[in-house]
Request: fold
Amino acid sequence: MSKLIPLPFERPIVDLESQLEQLEQQLGRSPQLTDAVRQMRVELQRLTREVYENLRPWEVVSVARHTNRPQALDYVELIFDEFVELHGDRAFGDDRAILTGFAQLDDQKVLFVGQHKGRNLDERITHNYGMAHPEGYRKALMKMQLAAKYQLPIVCFIDTAGAFPGIGAEERGQAYQIAYNLREMSRVRTPIVCVVIGEGGSGGALGIGIGDHVAVLQYAYYSVISPEGCAGILWKHPKFADKAAEALRFTAPDLLKFGVIDEVVPEPLGGAHRDHRRMAITLKGTLLHALKQLKSLPLDELLNRRYDKFRRIGQFEEQHATTAESSAAS
Reply:
């Protein structure tokens, strides 16, 4: 893992870490510094916990986009024992923004579907920054239907700013393919677990996000639109992205409260970008538990629950106009 690049709000943490490192280097020459080192470690944990427990939504977005945050291929290496990638959509090409393949999760065989952004420039270009074309969503759906045929559960990792908005993608039916995936994923006769591991942007995320159990990592976000996009529409300038992030209520605690997701997966102290391995261990436990619960359900009940789950999202109350007027008058 490359050297961590601190976020603006992490500066006090980084400064204290630097002081602690200097003190630890002197420990061999001055054993009497042991208590000071111990106290500083305690203070570092306290400060990190305090900072991360009070993150504003826009700061959560910066954590979700952190360059060192583990991505789909990192989790494939850390969580699954085997991975055999499946390519292509049998129609246009192999969209590398979405990776699919058979994987081994302990003693459980699964189909893995994940959006991968890439770490360096070459990798990001190869994977189109995790923004899929129609052929990517078509590939994902085809592999899911293959998994259902062989009674394999499906694990989807979501991490995208949104579906690719280019002319070619629109000409090849981007909106139609995402809508088609929504309908067909609701009918796939096998358990589906979806996890937002970083960004969950708009239909680009939802195109592989119809599942029986939907989880979001503690410092990830899941939204109908990016903060910059929302700011451009409502305030006519992306500089108001922080204000839009506050209004969108897309952080994991809000999503859980609104019933959009089923679980918030805790991250290591200071975020997943600080400890990939510990985050992977936690996430693996989440996947195993969710799959165990879902496998015990009859398929018809599973599909009915999946359909009802997404129908409940966005509930609202209706009131007759006359009743509303009389209430206002009183």
